[in-house]
Amino acid sequence: MKKIITTKNAPAPIGPYNQAVLTGNTLYTSGQIAINPQTGELVLDSITNETKQVMENMKQVLLAAEMTFENVIKSSIFISDMHNFSEINAVYGTYFNEETAPARETVEVANLPKFVNVEISMIAVK
């Protein structure tokens, strides 16, 4: 059985999907981009601020499912330019304990929704 996870503290879906789905003890999140949930505006002034907004959005989705980044077992990072990897990685790393960090892939793609620079999705387990 699946439970839809939603929070007003992260951007509302812009299509036929939900912020996250919980099935059993496993949470599958949709990709988050750098939309400020209070204003609805994209945060694109720097790759650092953009990544921070993505991670803060993801934090709110995890909290809505009564989880934290410690529950994350897998992350997928999609970026539009691999030259931004080090800045994205630096921000991403501040949200995890290196010793218990999840498995991850980082993939460069041609385009992302709303032509942002980074999108991140996660799988977490209670």
From TrEMBL:
List the Pfam families. Answer: Ribonuc_L-PSP (PF01042)
User: Transmembrane ranges?
Assistant: none
Provide any one GO MF term from the record. hydrolase activity
Say if the entry is tagged with keyword Transferase. no
What keywords does the record list, in alphabetical order?
A: Hydrolase
Top-level taxonomic group: Bacteria
The name this protein goes by in its record: Rid family detoxifying hydrolase
